[in-house]
UniProtKB/TrEMBL annotation:
GO terms for molecular function: phosphatase activity. This is Uncharacterized protein. Keywords: Membrane, Signal, Transmembrane, Transmembrane helix. It comes from Amorphotheca resinae ATCC 22711. It comes from the Eukaryota. PANTHER family: ACID PHOSPHATASE-RELATED (PTHR11567), PHOSPHOGLYCERATE MUTASE-LIKE PROTEIN (PTHR11567:SF142).
Amino acid sequence: MHSKQLLALASLASLIQAQETVLGVYIFHRHGDRTSKSWPPASLTDLGYHEVFSSGQFYRDRYIDANASNPIYNVSPNLVKNSQLNVQAPVDTVLQNSASGFLQGLYPPVGATLGSQTLANGTDIEAPLNGFQLIPVNAVQSASSSANSENSAWLQGSSGCNNAIVSSNNYFYSEEYLSMLNKTADFYQSVLPVINTTFTSAQDSFKNAYTIYDYIHVSEIHNSTIPSSDLLTPEVLHQLQTLADNHEFNLAYNASEPIRAIAGSTLAAQIVQQLNATITGKSAQQVGIQFGAYGSFFSFFGLAQLPSVSVNFTGIVDYASSMTFELVTNATVSQTSYPSPDDIYVRFLFANGTAAANPLSEYPLFGQQQSPLPWNTFVSEMGKISIGDQASWCKACGNSSGVCASADTASSTGAQSSSKSSSGSGMSLGVAGVIGAMVTLGVIFGLEALIILVGGLRLVPKRRLNITTAAVTPVAKV
């Protein structure tokens, strides 16, 4: 009898899933495998290219293809419509190339049949490279950052946010950091023979936990011979990565100093801006894709209370990792009927490493007991952590020069006030003000780039979760 009940429940779940419509998605993606930051300029490797391309293929099979498992409403399945996509990456060769490789998997060449046109004089012209599709990647860059930011070990400085920089630097004076620095001194000196061609004895400490880990991690992937490789036992490699996790998470997020997570705050604003544009435009622009750095994952994880779901969210995300926000509804969707915000939900999913080889798993956000979240709840919670306009950013960061010298500190208040009185999306007045501030992102100084603060990481611990909202697989990979 019990087994029959389980089968009935499984059938019901499948039916509910089949009735669901994906209205749009926002994907935040890390770059693929790259060369070491210790030897700039860093560059995307062939392995990294393969990772992001495979991830693009995975998301094509999930959302884009005519036979997709979770097709996005009204999206073009073969010939790309650039108006339906909003793709961004910073001015950085690793991230820009990763975005381009991903898009090649998302919308592959269409061949001579679709990739051709007939001119007025009757001449048939075939697109080059078997119908290769050209998809623009919008380059974003903050006023203070430089090109090839993946060459930097820690990118908080390139955020240009004074208070965030100070907050991150405070970690190096904390009791936790100083204790870890002293406790691990002997451990780091024990691996000096492995890295002494690049790091001095003075540099070989917990202070440089990430750059040391990155150097050895890249070597383990690409170098057939490594000096004193016998020292790199599985236990030592695990310890190097765990220490790097601890070091970088603390630089990217601190519960008592939210400004340290400026990357996650600006990312949160951009996510809501894109998803709201999907709703107000009735899925005219359904797909938002951003390639960025590992610190943005860390910062958002902390702000969204994901470490309370699993300690895995305090570890380093692997190359080509992605987090996805699905805008879904069970209401009827057609050319003449589009669901109201009250009938729309947001599902959060995460894949540690390329989604083609690692499970894309669902997790609850903000300590909530349900997933997906109602749209209004999602916007309200995101509004608590978002920084989505120039004046608010300048105030939070304590900046008064450059673009902040002329910032109108009342602009965000004005935007919210006007939005509360009128909202084109038809959403509740309680969340319309949040959106009003966020939609100003399109006219500020490339604020999207502020989310790109740090270079690449991956998660360490390996354990299973068991939550009621989904069958969740481990985030970690060792």
